[in-house]
Amino acid sequence: MFGVVFPNRSFPMDISTFAQIDTLHWILDMNTFVGEAYDQVREVCIFLLNNFTLPPDKALAVYIQSPGSPFMFCGAITLARPSAVLSLPWPEPGGQLQLTAADSSPPSAKIGVSVEDLASLPSLDVAADQKIERLAMKVGENLFNFMQSFCGVDGSKLIVPMDILDRWFKKFQDRAKRDPEYLKGFAL
Asked: Does 95 share its domain with 59?
């Protein structure tokens, strides 16, 4: 059905590496893969295998879980997007790490994969959405700082010159043309 590879860390692995929970859910115990260094694994590439057809309204959703934390959605693949490299922003371990006498192994990090309705998923790539949000925030901060250097105060209002947006945008474009690395600094 699907395979995964951890870029620069593994060879491709098929579904047999995962423990099947039921017909729609699989779990990879990171203890068997990297032990306690799970948080060093920052990306996973998941892909549909050639002979498997996922219904067009379904997706394979990827989740991660640090020991004691809830599962967190990372992204998904579909028939129209049959592979993806997803960031793994591991959550902080949770507080439920006490072992009982019945526990034979310590809690471990996990990667979960499940077949879900495409319409119910928030995004196919959570990390890409977060990068876009950070980019927008940094550009907005740049504009605010530029405007602040030219504004005056009238009571509780900021007064700025009428052409301030034009001046900022021209300066922004000129800087981006002169220094190709300038825009990359906004995307970090």
From this structure: yes
Q: What is the domain range of residue 135? A: 128-187
Kindly state whether residues 35 and 96 are assigned to the same domain.
Answer: yes
pTM: 0.65
**Cβ proximity of 90 and 64 under 8 Å:** yes
* 3-state class (DSSP) for residue 53: coil
The gap from C-alpha 172 to its chain's centroid, in whole angstroms, comes to 28
The packing angle between helices 126-148 and 180-187, to 10°, is 120
Torsion of Cα atoms, 70 then 93 then 87 then 5, to 10°: -90
Helix (H) or strand (E) holding 20: strand 19-22
Tens digits of per-residue pLDDT, 65-95?
998 889 999 989 988 889 999 988 888 887 5
User: Looking at the structure, do residues 82 and 163 belong to the same domain, yes or no?
Assistant: no
Sign, CA dihedral 138-142-147-149, equals positive
Given 85, 102, 123, the domain boundary residue is 123
- Say if residues 111 and 27 touch (Cβ distance below 8 Å): yes
Q: What six digits make up the tokens of 145?
A: 């700082």
Domain C-terminal end among 123, 149, 177: 123
Distant-in-sequence, close-in-space partners of 26: CB < 8 Å, separation ≥ 6 = 15, 18, 19, 20, 112, 113, 114
Assigned token pair, 185: 């600094």
